[in-house]
């Protein structure tokens, strides 16, 4: 992702104008941050899991940690270890770090099927990316 696109996403997050329509670009940046740093790759080491993110509005995205690399895209993977369900707004806010996923889960706005421990690991990865983008 080129530097101008990175800056635009960071600005939208900082200004509070980031929306679900920016999610594809953000997930591309998310993967770049994780895959481009030793610390990010270390967090993925030995953690081969697939996630399906279902928006209550109907759209789905996949997140994949495999062979020490992170990737994401629209649609559904054939095999899924964990399913996350919430509104597009809730998922977007969780991914950019402006909503605590634990609070969303406890409050019932985020549903998790599959290993909750994997969702917690994803939470740590989200925090890592948020912190990396803040610098």
Which characteristics define this entry?
5 strands, five-stranded mixed beta sheet, 135 residues, Nonspecific Lipid-transfer Protein, Chain A, alpha+beta
Give a written overview of the molecule:
With 135 residues, the protein is α+β, with helices and mostly antiparallel strands. It has one domain: Nonspecific Lipid-transfer Protein, Chain A. Helix content is 49%, strand content 21%. It is built from six helices and five strands, in the order αααββββααβα. It has a five-stranded mixed beta sheet. Strand 1 (49-55) and strand 2 (60-66) form a beta hairpin. The model has no long low-confidence stretch (mean pLDDT 89).
